[in-house]
Amino acid sequence: MMKIGRVGLLVLTVLILNCSASSAWFGNKHKSGKTSILPGEASSSSSSFSSSSFLRRPGSSIVFPIHGNVYPVGFYNVTLNIGQPPRPYFLDLDTGSDLTWLQCDAPCSRCSETPHPLYRPSNDLVPCDDPLCASLHHTNDYNCDYPDQCHYEIDYADQYSSLGVLVKDVYLLNFTNGIQLKVRMGLGCGYDQLFPASSYHPVDGVLGLGRGRASLISQLSSQGLLRNVVGHCLSTHGGGYMFFGDVYDSSRVTWTPMSSTDIKHYSAEAAELVFGGKATGVGNLLAIFDTGSSYTYFNFHAYQALISWLKKELHGKPLREAPDDQTVPLCWHGKRPFRSIQEVRKYFKPLALSFATSRRAKSVFEIPPEAYLIISNYGNVCLGILNGSELGMGDLNLIGDISMLDKLMVYDNDKQLIGWSPANCDRVPKSRDVSI
User: Fold this and answer.
1) Which of the residues 92, 94, 246, 412 is marked catalytic?
2) Domains, the chain, ordered by start
3) Residue 141's pLDDT is what?
């Protein structure tokens, strides 16, 4: 999922090209004075140990600080060190897509301005018949006209796209047990990007955290380094953290099964919309949890019902619509500019999505006012839930960053569960003490 300025949009397609009008040039591999610490050659600077014992060690995890906010920054990013020698890159956090890619000097025909120098790719090309390449196809019977390379094209719904080639390179990762590893994994070298001005963010690429084989957590899990679990905790104050592996107390997490029909996204089974603690009759909602979207999107029926309820609740309250504020489609002004959500939350009721986990049990995803409202730069209070039907999303509903604030979110691919729990996301777990 990518963002239109401050608005996130669903990834529509991932297409691997069998040929490309633009051929990528790959320079010499970067050399490092240190030996790569790969899964089969694990070691640490402080002590030596058996790599096999490390790989079998329960509770292995990696924690990354997150930077950014829903508004006004409009996106979250993490820093990953990639290459030989490792160099830092800012990556847009995206649970709605699989492939991690960097804007790439191969050379680059079209790249946006980046915080760091463009990534110089390794010579370790991923061949067309590699399972990593195959995982990005929609079918299994694709042709490999250029068998030594795997070209890709990713199109996002906000008209952003990236064309490139898959390579493998080294990621420098710090585990919470104090071990540092260099792990060779796949990534995209994006040498041709198209993006509208409203989509630009000062990042070096995208961190794909989806359910597919190409995602970083899937690659780490396949190498035996971690359980296939990814999660995040986004703070209302900005920032937060994300993690791979076991970084939570499962007994404190509310769980719901992942969808049995949508195997590409972190989506749950159908939910019912709850407003002010009361059932609305709006049900059978298909929801996707996606950090690539700043805001939340409801389908047409749910959105219109929400707007109707809000107008009824706000009747007689000291709030009036502010059509001149174009931050998002719907804003309200007061007698004077607002400075925080706390000043207006008393006028708004909480929302919730109720997921049926069994015939009798339900898992409720609470969305309090601070998880669906923002204060714009004009001092107005604005609705951070948008009409997805205007963006061609059909019946899908998207739970974006705003509605996941101050929640520990867990996507357990091993157990096929999505979980959440209230949390202090300002406190980044420290090494050797990661229980939340």
Assistant:
1) 94
2) 2-245 (2.40.70.10), 250-422 (2.40.70.10)
3) 72
